[in-house]
Amino acid sequence: GESVGLHLPTLSVQEGDNSIINCAYSNSASDYFIWYKQESGKGPQFIIDIRSNMDKRQGQRVTVLLNKTVKHLSLQIAATQPGDSAVYFCAENIGSNYKLTFGKGTLLTVNP
Amino acid sequence: GAGVSQSPSNKVTEKGKDVELRCDPISGHTALYWYRQSLGQGLEFLIYFQGNSAPDKSGLPSDRFSAERTGGSVSTLTIQRTQQEDSAVYLCASSPRLSGGNQPQHFGDGTRLSIL
C-alpha cells in the first residue's frame, strides 16, 4: 500500500500466520526489484530480489511475486515470527541505472 | 569487517556547524552509495561512487553537501553550515559493482544526525 504523510501502512499478524506485504511500483521500465527489512536503529537488510523476466522467486520462508501488468510486487513471509517485526521496503531499479528507488515502507508487527 | 561500517553512529551538533560522516564499504566493493532517510520515510538517494569517481551529484540536496572517496574504499559525506532540515539518518551502501541487473546494495546502520 501507499503511505500518507509520516504514517506507514501497517500490518499486524499473529505468530505462525503467513504475512503478505504489498508494494506498487511506479516505473514500467523497472527491471530489477529488491525487498529490504529494516529493524529499529539498523540499516536496511537485503531479503530477496527478483528480475523482471520472472514472476516468482522463493527464498527461505519468503516468496516474492511480481505482476508487471499492474506494476505490483508482494513479499510473502511464511510462519511469521516475532523476529520478523520490522519495516519492509521494496526498491526498484532500471537497467544499468545505479539508483534504487525505494517505496515508503510497511510496518509489520508480529503478535506472540 | 564483514559489513558496511559507518561512523559516528550518532551525531548531535548545532545549527551552522559542519559535519563529516564516514563510510567503510565491504572490502572489494567498487560501488558505494549514500542515502538519506527522514523519520518514517523511505530512502532518498544522494550520490554514488564508482571507484573514486562520482559521475552524478544531482541527488545532493544543496551545495552545502559534498562527498568524496579515496583509494576506492572509504567515503566521507560532508555537510557544511548545517540546517535543522538536515536532521536525518544518513545511510551508506556498497555493491560489488554498480547496481543494475542483479546487484543488491548492502547497507550500513547509518549515522543519525540531529541538528539543534
How would you portray this structure in words?
Chain A is an all-beta fold and about 110 residues long. Chain A is about 0% helix and about 50% strand. Chain A has strands spanning about 10-15, 20-25, 30-40, 45-50, 55-60, 60-65, 70-75, 85-95, 100, 105-110. In chain A, strands 1, 3, 4, 8, 9 and 10 form a 6-stranded mixed sheet that branches. In chain A, a hairpin with a 4-residue loop joins strand 6 (about 60-65) and strand 7. Chain A is globular. Chain A starts with 9 loop residues before the first strand and ends with a strand. The model of chain A is unreliable at about 1-5 (pLDDT under 50). By secondary structure, chain B is an all-beta fold. In chain B, a hairpin with a 5-residue loop joins strand 6 (about 65-70) and strand 7 (about 75-80). In chain B, the strands form 2 sheets. In chain B, strands 2, 4, 5, 8, 9 and 10 form a 6-stranded mixed sheet that branches. In chain B, strands 1-3-7-6 form a 4-stranded antiparallel sheet, with no helix packed on it. The mean pLDDT of chain B is about 90. Chains A and B meet through strand 3, strand 4, strand 8 and strand 9 of A and strand 5 and strand 9 of B.
